[in-house]
Amino acid sequence: MSRIDGYSLKDAQALVAFRATVWYDPLNIFASWHVTGVVGEHACNFKGVECDRNLYRIKYVDISGCQLRGIVPAVLGNITLAWGFNLSNNEFMGPIPRGFGRMPNLKYLDLSNNLLTGKSICNTLI
Fold first, then answer.
1. Predicted pLDDT at 42
2. Domains of the chain from N-terminus onward
3. How far apart are CA 13 and CA 32, in angstroms?
4. Sign of torsion, CA 30 90 97 99?
5. Whole-prediction pTM value?
6. In angstroms, how far is CA 20 from the centroid of its own chain?
7. Transmembrane helix: is it a keyword of this entry (predicted)?
């Protein structure tokens, strides 16, 4: 039986939902970020995404410095096995999503040099 399952599809769908909240992508970073909804799909080939190749689950996302503009949605909190996100040096705006606080494996989160508002959640991750 394949180790690719519904969880890897949920990870991919979370990133696709994130892509939908970005309205400016001048470097076309998100060109590879798409899924059709078939169980077995995964995000391991998405640009800027590192996966556990045994489970096909997202471990780390780095889209820093990509000149992106948009909103960071709470749905990223559904990527439960991820240990890190680097979304720094873009132009993300709006509140810092509470979804990051629900990620049990999150050890690294860089949201610096964006236009985000709200309290820092960093102290809750330690």
1. 76
2. 6-110 (3.80.10.10)
3. 13
4. positive
5. 0.86
6. 12
7. no
The residues, ordered by sequence, that sit 6+ positions from 43 with a Cβ below 8 Å of its Cβ are: 8, 11, 12, 15, 33, 35, 49, 51, 58
Task: Decide: 11 and 58 in contact? Cβ < 8 Å.
Answer: yes
Query: Which residues contact residue 1 at a Cβ distance below 8 angstroms, ignoring those fewer than 6 apart?
Result: none
Classify 14 as helix, strand or coil: helix
Bridge-partner residues for 32, per DSSP? none
The pLDDT tens digits for 54-71 are 888 999 999 999 999 999
Q: Is 29 helix (H, G, I), strand (E, B) or coil?
A: helix
- Averaged confidence pLDDT in the chain: 87
Residue type, 102: R
CB atoms under 10 Å from CB of 36, counted, come to 7
Which residue do the tokens 């995000």 mark? 43
Give per-residue pLDDT as tens, 91-120.
Answer: 999 999 988 988 999 999 999 999 999 765
